[in-house]
Design brief:
With about 450 residues, this protein is of the alpha/beta class. It has 20 helices and eleven strands.
Length: about 450
């Protein structure tokens, strides 16, 4: 996920939040549909299929490795291009008649926008079959618009992990909390024992600054108010100005807005906005901060910072605990992210690439290269490159898991990648909760 924000599903080498050098390809978006691709009744071998997305740098190289063997056997040349301007450029290219054959959407909401405007084609039967076999109804729903399946899931992440040092906890007699109040109590205890801020938080991510804050709010809404309210909120049936959403901000504020609790190793509360989201990994490893909230992909950042990620290693993680009497007391309750793969044409070669990317074969190929996971039921968890990723896969595959996709990625981009991100920045910088919630809600499209 990755776009120029948080959906860097799991870096093998740490990605600078200050900028990305993208792995380019010789063919630009759209070239496959007009040069080398054949119609739906032709022979796909020898065709070029262009794929456009946000996955960059080392992740892009691994993505290309994941399908290299399939390219050889199929005779189809997949040409991938990454862009940190994906969200804006995909619409521009589609409107200008220069769309790629396939796009990897980091936001289901953006994919839905493109589908509703008639730019995307319905997923072929082979893709629909793969989705039915390998993905849950929830995941299939993220690629469905008005009852029509357009896209198939690709990779995934489990969000809401609290990263910490197991040896630090053991040395000080701290225990992993089992509910939200326990997390607040643990925070207070660490602060009292050390007279230092326990938490490190970074919202910085270039044009996407603010997204880590939206992840916090999404985790809290799901755990405090339950999946039904979460779904209504994502659909704007429960507006941002609703007391339930304000309560989530209030709960996060007990940590994020408390100058005694953050921002360990980086400054005061105001430094949250200017701290790149990847930087707290080094503070965790050095011991400058005791607690950090981030998705399963963060193990790559911790590793690059010199730490080992394991239950008996330098750094480990536990899921943000539930609220007592909240959404569920059985099974994990998690938010997560991922990508949806959809096509702009129904050329035979395009369909074959779609089919492969929606298969368990591709999922196992990519996960075995390290750093990422998938929610595909056919994925062998032992292919994951770390213990935390194996744990995340187990959570995704468990029947009793309550999973919801990242809320901001499901909302219209004007909100999810606009007023919500900006609202988190304004809120940390001192704007009142009521004012921020009103500003975020005002970004919701009128129709």
């Amino acid at each position: 996920m990755v776009r120029s924000h948080r959906r860097w599903i799991a870096p093998i080498a740490i990605v600078s939040a200050a900028g990305l050098a993208f792995t380019g390809c010789s063919g630009g978006p759209g070239s496959g549909g007009s040069d080398g691709s054949t119609g739906s009744t032709g022979n796909a071998a020898g065709s070029v299929v262009t794929v456009y997305g946000t996955i960059a740098d080392t992740e892009a190289e691994l993505l290309e490795q994941s399908w290299a063997e399939w390219e050889q056997s199929s005779g189809i040349d997949i040409q991938y291009e990454a862009s940190k301007e994906f969200e804006a450029q995909i619409a521009v290219r589609a409107q200008g008649g220069n769309a790629p054959d396939i796009a990897i959407f980091p936001q289901p909401g953006l994919m839905a926008d493109m589908a509703s405007r008639g730019f995307l084609v319905e997923a072929p039967d082979a893709v629909a079959s793969n989705v039915a076999e390998g993905w849950s109804e929830d995941w299939a729903g993220y690629g469905t618009v008005d009852g029509t399946l357009y896209g198939a899931p690709l990779m995934a992440s489990v969000k809401g992990w609290i990263w910490y040092s197991p040896s630090y906890f053991a040395d000080n007699g701290y225990e992993v909390p089992t509910d939200w109040q326990g997390l607040l109590d643990l925070t207070a205890q660490i602060q009292a024992d050390t007279d230092k801020a326990p938490w490190c938080i970074g919202f910085g991510s270039d044009a996407a600054t603010g997204w880590p804050g939206t992840d916090w709010i999404e985790d809290i809404v799901l755990r405090q108010s339950g999946p039904e309210v979460y779904d209504q909120w994502v659909a704007n049936e429960v507006p941002f100005t609703d007391p339930k959403i304000a309560s989530a901000f209030d709960e996060f504020g007990k940590i994020a807005l408390n100058p005694d609790y953050d921002n360990a190793g980086f400054g005061d509360v105001a430094s949250i906005v200017t701290t790149p989201f990847g930087d707290p990994a080094a503070a965790l490893v050095s011991g400058d901060c005791a607690l950090h909230h981030q998705a399963s992909f963060y193990d790559g950042f911790v590793t690059d910072a010199g730490g080992t990620v394991a239950a008996d290693g330098d750094i480990w993680a536990f899921l943000t605990p539930p609220f007592t009497g909240g959404s569920s007391d059985s099974g994990a309750v998690v938010t997560g992210g991922g990508e949806i793969v959809a096509a702009f044409n129904d050329n035979e070669a395009t369909q074959k690439v779609q089919e492969y990317l929606s298969s368990a074969d591709w999922a196992n190929s990519r996960v075995s290269l390290g750093g990422v996971i998938s929610a595909n039921k056919g994925l062998d968890p032992t292919n994951a490159s770390s213990a935390i990723l194996q744990e995340a896969i187990s959570i995704l595959q468990a029947e009793d898991t309550t999973f919801r996709f990242d809320g901001s990625d499901l909302m219209p981009s004007a909100v999810g990648a606009g007023t919500f991100w900006k609202g988190m920045v304004d809120w940390v910088n001192g704007t009142s909760t009521d004012a921020v919630l009103g500003q975020i809600e005002a970004g919701w499209p009128s129709s």
